[in-house]
Amino acid sequence: MTTYTTADAGSRPRTLGRSILAIFIGFVAVVVLSLGADEVLHLLKVYPPWGEPMYQPGLNLLALSYRAVFTVVGGYLTARASPHSPMRHVLIGACIGLAIGAAGVVAAAMIGGLGPMGYPVAVAVTGPPCNLLGGAIYVRQLSMSM
Known about the structure:
mainly alpha, about 0% strand
């Protein structure tokens, strides 16, 4: 009995859906964790009530700090969930995040009165490197386990 193997492109499992899901998982993690932390800090009255601007530099630094940590987590999860090329998925997520962050800066500038403009700029600028750091941590762990 003869066995034939073929390596045509059609036999390879489709990974586009898994790639999109990996990037989506990273975004959802960052949003859920960030909004969850925001809500807790509002409930504890550390932050002013929702809808009121937050001008205190220390509170904005606090928000930026945990968002940075959560963005590292998001990059890690994106890399871990990717079907292949984890850093490529993280880079795509970082680019999408940068575009969303830039749109947030424009929106904050157009609306005005939301707080200091430095905050949305800082979120937009720190997001991509934090996301890439999370992906790099995963890739490093992966290479060390081999």
